[in-house]
Amino acid sequence: MNKLNVVGKREPMLDAWEKATGRARFTDDLSLPGMLYGKILRSPLAHAKILHVDLSEAEKVAGVKGAISGKDIPKKKYGIVPMAKDEYALAIDKVRYIGDEVAAVVATSLDAAEEAISKIRVDYKELPAVFDPIEAMKPGAPIIHDEVPNNVSASIHKEFGNVEKAFRESDFLFEESFETQAVNHCPLEPQAALAIVDPSGKVTLWASTQIPFFLRRNLATTLDIPESKVRVIKPKVGGGFGQKIDLYAKDFCAAFFAMKTKRPVKFVYEREEVFISTRQRHPMRIHLKTGMKKDGTILAQQFKVIADGGAYNSTAPLMITLACYFIMLPYRLENLLFEGYHVYTNKPVGGAMRGHGIPQVRFAVEAQLDSIAEKMGIDPLDLRLKNAFQAGEPHPAKLLVQTCGFSDTLKKAAEGIGWKEKRGKLPFGRGVGLAGASFPSGVSNMSHISSGAIVKIERDGSITLLTGAADIGQGAETVISQIVAEELGVPLEDIRITAADTEITPLDPGTFGSGVTLRAGNAAKIAAQAAKEKLFEAAAEKMEIRIEELEAKNRRIHVKGNPERGMSIQEAIKFYQYSDRPMPIIGRGSYQPPAKEPTTLLKEDGNFSPAYSFMTQAAEVEVDTKTGKVKVLRMVASHDCGKAINPMLVEGQLEGSVVGGMGQALYEEVITEKGQVLNPSFLDYGIPTAMEVPSITSVEVETNDPEGPFGAKESGEGTQLAPAPAIINAIYDAIGVRFKSLPVTPEKVLKALQENAQNQNRDPESLDPDPEINSG
Amino acid sequence: MRLPKFEYLEPKTLKEAAKALASDTKESVLLAGGTDLLVNMKHKVIQPKQVINLKTIPKLAYISNGKDGLRIGALTTLHDIASSQAIQEEVPILSQAAGEVGAYAHQVMGTLGGNLCQGNRCRFYNQSAFWRGVKSPCYKVGGKICHVVPARAGGGRKPKECHSTYCGDMAPVLIALDTQVRVVGPNGERVFPLSKLYTQEGKKPLSLRKGEILKEILFPPPSGKALYLKWRRRESIEFPIVSLAFHIEKDGNERIQKARIIFSGVGSGPVEALEAEKMLKNASLDDWMIEKVSNQAIKEISPMRTSIHSPAYKRKMAGILLKQALEKISS
Fold first, then answer.
1. Which of A41, A163, A444, A702: CA 20 to 30 A from A653?
2. Do the domain assignments include residue B6?
3. pLDDT tens-digit map of A81-91
4. Contact B237 A689 (CB under 8 A)
């Protein structure tokens, strides 16, 4: 590959300065003349029929300009997955969890809106509620949605190969159960929306969203107006992690009230609302059986997975499907039987969160692999290397893995943490562990999964880039600008970017499934090439050579390898204009990942993603054996991201994701009691602070994927799959206890240490926590 | 969440503030750093008619180390205490404890007086109005039930009114150091041991009389060794799950003359383990003794399920903290 000038460089994020100095404007920073403030009334009951909502007292509060309940809105369901729509913007018939939206008001001040909310009287008929997914699946359990009498709203039963036969042929069988907890995404910016309506009746909504174009569609559906009457603009967004892919009541209510009152309307959620009524990572119970050959080959796995979905679907079918398919990466697995259920309960709603259904099952697999390795007398690293998937291998679910640096990530993470010197050799209380994973780089062939871009070469030689990509803090705008700058041979500062405005920028599915760099990056690259080609035509004519001989570098267009023979971009533009070519110079790009087969995975197998990233996390921990507190000392995150367009941003993604994974392993849990969240605040919910962040080393493995722009694949989201099991495996190395339920709090560690000590006193044989190893 | 409406007063003197506070016509509260008060007001667990801002009164923030000993003004910020060279040298445990309160922002805004007078906490109480609306109102907000210990159906044992927990960091330390407090009321001043500030009653945790305002904290001459051990999940932001202030004085022959063991987070006020303290007198700190003393101490605390952490766990950790303190002192 040619020497690159902008791609691969450690460029600061384009808006880093703005953000660091507090000048960046997020949705809540926006304000318009005559703006009204909205508030939502939420259900205090976990399950109830709504008999009557009386808004009259609320409407009398001074400053109140409108009040609505479910019966005032179009009866249009929404959901992020079209086949699983099950939610109204405001509850119409009944409420299904504590926090469900019942009514909304707008007023000239937030004080008035809050007062009005407190004056709404709702008559409920309380219904029996169910909080445990296994209880919810039993016959006779309360029915949460009438259409789903068994509360199983999505399920998957899949077999690849022949598991029964493979188990018979296995030399060893291992069977264990694991459990993961609910965790919240905790974006620092809470969900917000601001809407206005112009005289033509068109709604413009500024929203804290990851997916402006999907939001436009969902908003049009729920408002029951044409999509052409909705414009969504994404201002700066303070993190999403999957929580901002759904439409929320705040989006609908802002738009609905703007239409009703003809005034700007803003809704901003409280942190408590973020915790109780947006989305969270699904808690899962996982039963896992694995068949092994003597030589360490993983022959077959059987899963039964029950995901606690809470009161609504959100991404349910996709989540449970991803959990299934990504069992078969990063390890070779010919035989898989997967039975997965998404179950409604009267609790906060599960949704997409970094890794989307995969982190939970990955925790189970990676934790079990370590215990298998120990029982079989194999080094856990060697066991993983032996089974590591390689590029180009046939895949049981027809995933096409063109590049795969998994083995390299394993070796580099192990080397980085000092595996050989440390594993099993550190003093009691200290340990190392590792875990691997794989993740898609976007989704291939579902509807709406194409990206567009427009690149304009301006008269002064500067470049304007329009992309639909939604930068939510990860740096998408910077990365896509780098791609365009590289393609056009200009420095990054020459690019002006306008992004994520459904009226101005081309279609883009938004930020989810880790596809932004690959998808929107490719679209922008194609657009830049198209614009460049037009300029090259003119330059070639002037220089009397063939277009193919030209390249663009350092703001010049010149003969390849001969910078002297050429002209500046500005000279080329001048000639372009004087040779009567039509201005402006616009290049367009549309990109859809290649897909030969239907590939939603929801119904058929096929290549789900244009490229797959691979990663290994290695952890070193210290356990205070007196108090049970686990301190993560060091994490090594080794990631095959194809090619780091911006290594500094890749590192930022890896570091943030590692901390999130550490939170799930040790600190975080949305605790509920009869459906009520007990800790809906940053004080009581244990998200790690800067004080808990360990030293993190990022090791990039570059495999230069043929499909990714300049070889790039996913980074960041997939990273969150492996830190939790890596830490749990390190804890085992430290204290000899295998934890199967997250989070591993000091309380659990202390209890386990004391039990071990007691067992040791009584009977040293019973130390083995998993005695059920069978010869096959 | 917005603050409820209130009248706002900026008195010029403590006396004026005390009079306003004593007024029967207004339910008034005092504002110092606001880190505790404003959150409670936004949650609408406190809805005062009047807020009296103490920060406008001059000369309430000071650290003075004169011939009458160390004195700290009630409005001195925790950050000033954490970073004061005089305190770091004289009573290092105090700057350490101040540096462990909440997060940096709390320390910059929060004051020593405010911290000592901070409200008791409970998982059913320190929640938004919406959250509390899911359940019936508890004693602490004028209701008829304590969700921590609900009355048994059909009568039986009448529960204590409110089981909310004292979670301050500074009080256990200052009680262990035998400090006194000076309070100013509408009818003059009084000085009494800090330990007497706490009633051990959840509903009204402070013994201040009508209109009384904490003015300063008075220290005896420094003596012995002191430790503050705070147990929490994260190294910032959090209140103690349980914390321990430990103060010990030995005579010339290294024999323990006096020991103070004060816990936070395990009762309706700071809790002193008096019997365990007695055991330590003249004791030699071998493993057996350390075990015995910590076993005794955890019998003297009565943690309740007022946070997401179980009482059993709090008790266990209280014992572990005391063991750690005794081991540290003995080594």
1. A444
2. no
3. 888 999 999 99
4. yes
CATH (domain of B204): 3.30.465.10
Please, are residues A553 and A563 in contact by the beta-carbon 8 Å criterion?
yes
Both B186 and B73 in a single domain?
yes
Q: What is the pLDDT of residues A183-207, one digit of tens each?
A: 999 999 999 999 999 999 999 999 9
- Provide the shortest C-alpha distance from residue A688 to chain B (in Å): 7
C-alpha span between A449 and A55 (Å, rounded): 42
Chain B CA closest to residue A46: B134
Which residue in the block uniquely carries the two structure tokens 């290594």? A647
B37 in a domain, yes or no? no
Q: How far apart are CA B17 and CA B34, in angstroms?
A: 16
Best residue in B130, B231, B314 to probe A by mutation, most A CBs within 10 Å?
A: B130
What pLDDT shows up at residue A764? 42
- pLDDT digit string, tens, across residues A422-457: 999 999 999 999 999 999 998 876 656 889 999 999
In what side-by-side order are the strands of the sheet with B256-264?
A: B225-231, B242-250, B256-264, B271-272
> Could you tell me where the DSSP H helices lie in chain B?
14-22, 37-42, 78-83, 85-90, 92-98, 104-109, 112-116, 129-133, 170-176, 274-280, 287-297, 311-330
Give every CB contact of residue A412 below 8 A, 6+ residues apart in sequence: A616, A636, A638, A699, A701
**Residue type for position A432:** V
* In the predicted structure, residue A42 carries a pLDDT above the cut 80: yes
A594-626 pLDDT, tens per residue? 876 655 666 777 888 999 999 999 999 999 999
In this model, does residue A768 exceed pLDDT 80?
A: no
In this structure, the number of other CB atoms found within 10 A of the CB of residue A579 comes to 11
Contact between chains at B130 and A272 (C-beta distance less than 8 A)? yes
Q: What is the percent of chain A with per-residue pLDDT over 90, rounded to a whole number?
A: 92
In this complex, do A114 and B2 lie within 8 Å of one another by their Cβ atoms?
yes
Of the candidates B246, B95, B202, B128, which has an alpha carbon nearest to the alpha carbon of residue A274? B128
Is A775's pLDDT higher than 80? Answer: no
Query: Could you tell me which CATH number the domain at A280-444+599-764 has?
Result: 3.30.365.10
Mark the ranges of chain B whose per-residue pLDDT is less than 70: 152-160
- Could you confirm whether domain A16-22+450-591 is CATH 3.40.50.720? no
ipTM: 0.95
pLDDT for the residue A160: 96
Which amino acid, one-letter code, is at B209?
A: R
* CB-based burial, B4-37: b 16+ in 10 Å, e otherwise: bebeebebeebbebbebbbeeebebbbbbbbbbb
Please determine, looking at this structure, whether the domain spanning A31-127+188-239+244-277 carries the CATH number 3.90.1170.50: yes
For residues B14 and B20, give the distance between their C-alpha atoms in angstroms, rounded to a whole number. Answer: 10
Rounded average pLDDT over A26-38: 98
In a domain, B180, yes or no: yes
Mean pLDDT of A265-290: 98
Of the residues B184, B199, B218, the one at which a domain ends: B218
What pLDDT score was predicted for residue A604?
74
| Residue A370: Cβ within 10 Å count | 23
Q: What is the mean pLDDT of chain A?
A: 95
Same domain, B198 and B64: yes
Interface of A with B (CB under 8 A): 42, 44-45, 98, 110-111, 114, 118, 270, 272, 626-627, 667, 671, 676, 678-680, 682-684, 686, 688-692, 745-747, 750
Domain residue extents for chain A: 16-22+450-591, 31-127+188-239+244-277, 280-444+599-764
Query: Are B186 and B282 found together in one domain?
Result: no
Q: For residue A690, which residues of chain B lie inside 8 Å, CB to CB? A: 236
CA of A277 to nearest chain B CA: how many angstroms apart?
A: 12
